[in-house]
Amino acid sequence: MNIKLWAWTIVFILIGGGIMFYGMSYNPLGWFQGFVSFTEPNDEPIPWGLLVIGYIFFGVIGTGVSTYNSLYELFNKNHKEKNPFDKIKLRNEWLAFAVLIPGWIMVFASTYKPAEALYIYLSFRDTSRIAWNGVLYALVGIGIIAEILALIGEKIKEEGKRGYLDRFLAWLSSKTSFEIPGLLKIVVDIDALIVGYAILAELILDANLGSVFGYLSTWVYEFGPFMSILLVVASFYAGIAMISFITPLYSWLRKPSVVSPPSAQPIATHSLGSGNVEPQEDNIMFKILARDGLLATISIGFLVLWWVWLTATNQETFPWAQLLLTGSWSLYFWIGLVLIGIIIPIALYSVAYKKESKGWLFASSIFALLGWFMLITIADVIPQAISWYYSVSPITPPGSTWAYELRSNFNGVSQFTQLPFAISQYDLVWFAGSALFLLGVYTLGVLLLPLEEEEKPKHVWIFK
């Protein structure tokens, strides 16, 4: 038993949970009764604050990790030796699930009345993109859990166990043939169907998250499809960065293994690979992560250029372009996103790819994750940052609740008012608590589940 890992797991869960419990102390009775808003950011000039940024940040990382890992699993289903992540695929899926947890927590913490958040499902409105977020998060969670069970089922099938649940889990990874008339004939595993379902649900969730921002009435209609495309691509950008961060870190933190040569005392040596991965396979995996991370970062760079062009070449959104490029948010854009999130990761991923180095890959991932946080912060704040404007208001979707001030150059006042962005103590409490809770959930899975290739489920069907 790894006592140190157990200790850190308990610490992370207790501290993270304790911080969130402290967050409830703002008004716990009102929260449970559903009488009051539990979200102080709703009283700020910019209502969608750090909690909204947080659940998009973690949610898209989680879907990105799973989608990226699942695509390699799906397209190399019958040739596992070609999948560079085959030996860590189960650990990657658990990472995706663990990263989604702070996203789920912040979704409910950021609702107007968290105690009544269940009405997202009980009184579902099919015209609400935010309501669809609640449904899609649940569907994605179900898909990832089913995929984890199917991957564990592969191990159970190898063991040949005979219990009812053992047979069910083994069936999740069994072969089921579907013959399609004509030229197209495919043979599908049931877990391949699960993987396909998970990928589809994750991509739809990312696209819907983008549409929540893209169809704000402060944007022109071109931003609807653009923001959906941006978040789908960003899921790969952020997901690859998260895997590139955790995999080298996991490799470095692994306990030394013991080698017993003939007629000699046992010699402690360091484990050579990431998990049960040989050093040469390690290098190939790091090289592929660096290559895919480089491509994803270049794609994000192109989309950011497209974003700037869309904003700056439309008179209705030009004030936001000024805010982004030369105004009060320009430093965050040029330094936080362009330099830290795009230029530096491109350079570091290139070096990591050339040298097949996990050190350079790890450094790349840190900058990419910082860039992803800055990207979603800007995408959240900028469309809320201006109270509009001049004599003709921008296009407003029917039923919009956004209010516009009709201003004009003729009456000698500014055409718009910039709203301040503030992070409240409430925001920080829930963001920090959720992030720490994530670390505890991830290490708990490492301790309890057979996430490594050599580990087999021995207890209660799915535990090692």
From TrEMBL:
The family database entries (InterPro entries) matched by this protein are listed as:
Electron_transfer_protein, NrfD-like
Transmembrane annotation, as ranges:
5-26, 46-71, 92-110, 130-152, 183-205, 225-246, 293-312, 332-353, 360-382, 428-449
Keyword Membrane assigned to the entry: answer is yes
What keywords tag this UniProt record? Cell membrane, Membrane, Transmembrane, Transmembrane helix
The reply to whether Transmembrane helix figures as a keyword in the UniProt entry is: yes
The record's GO CC annotations read: plasma membrane
A Pfam family annotated for this chain is NrfD
The membrane-topology field of this record reads:
Multi-pass membrane protein
Localization terms from the record: Cell membrane
- Annotated family: Belongs to the NrfD family.
- Record's protein name: Sulfur reduction protein DsrP
State the species of origin.
Answer: Acidianus ambivalens
